[in-house]
């Protein structure tokens, strides 16, 4: 019987808050996967939060041993690369809507998606490599990312340009023989300080005089150990350094990469970027929704914590906090 006519699962966790139109579109295979992801996050990730935090504190820029353990375990349970669309042989066959439900659950723990190789920027970079790279590039870079052998970053934003309009990007690449030479500054690519970071996907200007601003740039594969590529510092965001991944400020100084590292061809990065960003927008927003829902749950628990009773009352019994909780609840229901 199809899920559109049999919604018995709708009254079970984690489906209780899904609107009817979503429930009607979830196929049996998706229902099973959503349940398995929920069980994984609740039984493997949430209980391990303090252990993960401690391990990161011991070595800020190395992936914790616990993360490696969880990734091996998730892979053994077929909770690995579940974001992959249908054109991948390894794809579980979820629609974007069905995977969005999984992404919401992953958001309940900041690093849960990483245990399943479903985290940013890996998901977008994997889809980019799969859609636009040739077979030699896929063999060298895509397969290891699918396996979780190393990590990658997207190197686009710049400190000296209004990069929200990517036609402004000014980092220069020039062709010299069978190589491209790169010079410029970039922001926010994952930290080079983590030894597992092996690849930067760079967007830079190759033809500044082109009359078509959408054809002035090119996308390149840049190995992290390229001579002349330097990470100057890690950038904090709202006071957090986001170790062990981070967000670096980079200088490319006469960095040389072979011409076979060009993706798709010169002048085509906007085509590539849009193909990368489409699904990722849904993945990001759903994880953030899951994060917000968990924050609301923790606020409710704190409000009724018997250890925290100023002036003999629960925190949640004060009028101002009741108002705050109501405001949080209304926002989460929109």
UniProtKB/TrEMBL annotation:
Source organism per UniProt: Neophaeococcomyces mojaviensis
Protein name according to UniProt: Uncharacterized protein
């Amino acid at each position: 019987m199809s899920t559109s006519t049999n919604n018995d699962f709708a009254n079970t966790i984690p489906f209780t808050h899904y609107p009817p139109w979503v429930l009607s579109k979830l196929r049996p295979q998706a229902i099973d996967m959503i349940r398995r992801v929920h069980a994984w996050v609740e039984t493997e990730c949430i209980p391990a939060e303090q252990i993960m935090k401690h391990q990161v504190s011991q070595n800020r820029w190395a992936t914790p041993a616990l993360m490696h353990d969880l990734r091996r375990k998730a892979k053994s349970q077929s909770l690995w690369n579940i974001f992959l669309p249908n054109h991948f042989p390894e794809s579980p066959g979820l629609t974007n809507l069905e995977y969005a439900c999984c992404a919401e659950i992953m958001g309940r723990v900041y690093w849960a998606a990483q245990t399943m190789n479903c985290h940013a920027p890996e998901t977008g970079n994997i889809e980019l490599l799969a859609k636009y790279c040739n077979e030699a590039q896929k063999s060298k870079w895509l397969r290891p990312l699918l396996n979780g052998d190393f990590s990658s970053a997207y190197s686009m934003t710049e400190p000296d340009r209004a990069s929200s309009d990517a036609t402004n990007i000014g980092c220069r690449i020039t062709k010299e023989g069978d190589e491209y030479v790169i010079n410029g500054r970039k922001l926010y690519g994952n930290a080079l300080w983590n030894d597992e970071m092996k690849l930067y996907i760079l967007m830079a200007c190759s033809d500044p005089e082109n009359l078509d601003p959408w054809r002035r740039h090119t996308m390149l594969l840049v190995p992290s150990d390229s001579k002349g590529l330097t990470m100057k510092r890690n950038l904090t965001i709202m006071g957090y350094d986001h170790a062990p991944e981070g967000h670096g400020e980079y200088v490319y100084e006469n960095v040389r990469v072979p011409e076979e590292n060009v993706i798709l061809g010169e002048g085509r990065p906007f085509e590539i970027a849009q193909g990368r960003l489409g699904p990722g927008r849904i993945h990001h927003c759903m994880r953030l929704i899951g994060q917000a829902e968990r924050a609301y749950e923790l606020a409710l628990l704190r409000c009724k914590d018997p250890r925290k009773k100023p002036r003999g009352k629960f925190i949640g019994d004060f009028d101002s906090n009741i108002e705050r909780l109501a405001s949080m609840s209304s926002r989460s229901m929109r």
